[in-house]
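Sample A.
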Amino acid sequence: MLPASTISRFRNAAPFGISIALPILVLVAVTQGGWFLILPPLGTWWLYTALDAITGRYTENADPMIEDADLFWYRLVTMIWFPIQLVMIYGVIWYVTGTEHLSTAEKFGAFFGVGVLSGTVGIVYSHELMHQSNRFERWLGDLLLATVLYSHFRTEHLLVHHPYVGTTRDAVTARYNEGFHRFFIRVLFEAPVSAWRAEKAMLARRGLSAFDRANPFWRYGTLQFAAIILAVWIGGWLGLALFAFQAFVAVWQLELVNYVEHYGLTRKHLGDGKYERVMPHHSWNADHKASNWLLINLQRHSDHHYKPARRFPLLQTYPDNEAPQLPYGYPIMTMAAIVPPIWRRVMNPRVRAWRKQHYPEVTDWSAYKAGTLPPPVVR
């Protein structure tokens, strides 16, 4: 167990901060064009996959009782990303809409790279920030989500996904044999509705209308509208199209990660709409060292669901017999998910082995696979 005196050192936090330099790849890509446009995905997905092969798994755990005061450098990494992303998105809109050396296809290629970073880094950081009790950090999370037009994710994640993961009420728990592309379309429609209903129910318990000013959807809409107007003001209709494209790429990556994190894993139905409590074995874990630097330990996902408020440097990893382990980190696993036959060949045997290990008494999984079990009782 690593103590605070070790964790708090700048050199231990520094690898997580390397992502701050990634916008340089976007800068080179947009100024040079051509083959340089592959630099953002090459420097994230592929580079960190290669580094995982070199650095391997990292199974040490920090003392989970370390105070926030000892985590300054880690918190700083997540808090300074919003201004970086803001300048990256709108600065590139300004540049590419005013330059003539890039074709229209190259401009959208450049914004594919922008979306790679606003998704791989921006949404992951917003996820960390939205889980904190500090109001400033939560606002930074909201601002990051507004720049990818996915603000409802905060509500859906906190009020639906965490309480109901592994059940039929959670849209982003991917079902066994459900291909990513079908999952993606389903989630795009179901998650916003689910988030709205969750906020509506919470307001109703307070005796308030769903349209009361206390509903965060007013804030979500205002921030997203401001983000859109800024894109149009800087780059016109082309600027808006480029902005929307990077938002789509970012959301596509988020849902790829959601797909990987819980594919085929379900909580046992106890009857009468009751399910067992969330345990580490209800999330796929990946303690690969380098990709956890990039994704600020998001891959230690089993512990995140077990202790959602725990800050990322303190997330624990578990032995393989307590939490199912992915064969590779998220970068390569999400790429595999894009090709369903490859994904099923890799993951379906692991899901079946997980069932035998944790639920040998369950002989009929058809209702779990079809998603036809009754939804859990709303809390």
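Sample B, a different protein:
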Amino acid sequence: MKAAVFEGPGPITWRDVPDPGIKDPGDAIVRVDVVTICGTDLHILKGDVPEVAPGRVLGHEAVGTVVETGRDVRSVRPGDRVLISCISACGRCRFCREGRYGQCAGGGGWVLGHTIDGTQAEYVRVPFADLSVHPLPNAVDSFDAVLLADIFPTSYEVGVLNGGVRPADTVVVVGAGPIGLAAIATARLYSPGRIIAVDLAESRLAAARTLGADATVTVSEGPEQLVEDLTNGLGADVAIEAVGVPETFEMCTRMVRPGGRVANIGVHGKPAVLHLEDLWIRDVTITTGLVDTSSTPMLLRMMAAGRLPAAELVTHRFELGQMEEAYDVFGRAADTGALKVTLGGPQHTALQAPAPPVAG
């Protein structure tokens, strides 16, 4: 089969690799129908995630069709259309029993495209399939559903829930890429008083306004002063970091009010300065986290009900074989205006129920 292979820091290669096969009784082999590229994949290509070895097939988000299952798999069977979660869960270790699947100590966690071959391929082996894939209802389009593999649960769990967003809060989201935009969309579920989006690119801030940001500001326009002005000098109740560079993390710690919360989502490849000499007296809570995807079933129900704005996040679509081009477009987002890119075939359409038999 063909797959996107990490050859070391630099561009990926779309090339032939061996087909995956069942290794463990809980595995499923899934034909990839729709896949996407994550900002974390770009961090890997920069060398920020040294655990990823050259030769690894990248990707941890996909929708596909089950083609084979191990003997212990009970929740899906060949022919089922499924969402592949970015997190695999053994279901037995201490962390999985607590719902902290991202910290799975039984061979799961973030493994796809990290420590085992991932989803940016024609086929993928998914371990612990009973807890790591989700059957999709016909009402949910595959190109929408792929956004539930990572960005929506990550933004909701690591940003909104960790940040403790509450009604009437002032929420600042630093970074209006896909993760930041999904954080804006899911923060709105808690009726904050205002959401302020910060980014370098005006095109992304326009998307933030579409998804519910009440105020937007570029870095050059002075976001810290804007937050101070809008909160009468108090600061934001919640600051969500969705970039992953030292400057944006430190900006968040300066914009949050005494007693406020900083929720870090961004993947950091370099150390950031923690100014405890300023923060210790201000009762600031700082959270970090890898997504657990425990919220995915709930988010899937919301998507089926039309309550999540998935389509607005996708700016570019490609065929699966255009993986190298898709990486180039996504990696040059400042020039291309890319938010989320998807790759795959035609959209899924809902099946029509057969007509009832005519009596007589």
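Observation for Sample B: Residues 152-287 form a domain with the Rossmann fold fold (CATH 3.40.50.720).
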